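Justification of resources, computational component.

The compute hours requested in this renewal are based largely on the per-chain cost of generating structure records like the one below. Each record pairs the submitted sequence with a full structure-token output. That output is archived, and it is also reused by downstream analysis tasks.
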Amino acid sequence: MTTLVWDLVIVGGGAAGFFAAIACGEHASRPLRILIIEKSSRPLGKVLISGGGRCNLTHACYEPARLVEFYPRGAAALRSAFSRFQPHHTVAWFEAHGVPLKTEADGCVFPASDSAQSVADCLMQAAKMAGVVLWTQHTVAAVEASESIFTLHVRPMVQAETLPVPARCLLLATGGDYTSLGLAAELGHTVEPPVPSLFTFTISDPRLSELAGISVAPAGLTLLDESGKPSHLPGGQQSGALLITHTGLSGPAVLRLSAWGARWLNQRGYHAGLAINWVYPRDLDMVIGDLQAYKSNPARARQKPFLHALFGKLPLRLWQRLVKAAGISPGQNWADVSKADLRRLAEELTQGGYTIQSKGLFKDEFVTCGGVRLDEVDFKTMQSKRLPGLYFAGEALDIDGLTGGFNFQNAWTTGWLAGQGIARQLGEG
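The structure output for this chain reads:
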């Protein structure tokens, strides 16, 4: 009995894997035998849950030089990749395949249906039209490479024994799962250990207690080193909307800071200092001047700082916590506030120090940084520089982006480039 040799086997049934399979099938010079192997029972799982079930599938940023600024890791490699396939192409592809899209005020692009299911259905249908076969609930236990053939040892969930699956080309689109990335290591690649990115901060501090739900926009955040000074970490200062939660802090500013500081924070066990500027972009000297000018007005001498927030965007309850932290009592009038008090209040407003005690979970979408080292991959085709016929796409690579559709754009771009590269290789073979 002759064993079927697949032209392409893709390990990972997520966005990158599906898009690569579709691109390969659509651009091939002949019909190809393409197989996607997915370990779960639910392919395209992240597509279905992302954006609260709406699927923020890309971002309306159409300049590659600007687009790469949203990637804490992988920017240099993606610059050239985005010159060949970027959000403009993503939008055009999905709309050409029957999924109308809409761009919201913040640049996030969603299906007009507001349903991630429409994106998943589109990908499933396009894969079917391209002749792609899907196996779910199958895991790849090992891979062997010899004489231009990859032999995957695949274990169906319902049985203990593996079955051999030979393929001419192999694409690893396994995401950031460390066990699955072990396949790349077995095939001679260096894998940067995956660690969480995009997470909230757990902070227990009396200044924040019982203030859950209060938000400030914009606020400024700075990661502090062991000496309490601003870290020299690239991206270690971020600004944006900040949300106080029951366990600490969340919001876009926190998620961006956690992404840029993912490895730095991991190395410190997610225990680090954090400075918060609640009145960003005003700095310490500017706020001292504001407070002194306010106090010097005779009409305000008998007013109580505790009762009126000076900075309009600050919620009164938060202002009162910061006033109290500065040592100003609720009964004091402005006339009784000393210069030292004003300085302490200005410091609380612009550079108050907090302690990150651990990371929280970002429930909508779990992203990791880490994966196959980028200098071992040809970003024109996504083919391995170490083993011909081996390709990578998506989060299997050491690439991760911020929230807003950037991680999906990495999946579409690298998947599309890989699919085209494989189609060309198989057409020449």
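The chain has two domains: 6-196+364-428, 199-361. Residues 6-196+364-428 form a domain with the FAD/NAD(P)-binding domain fold (CATH 3.50.50.60).
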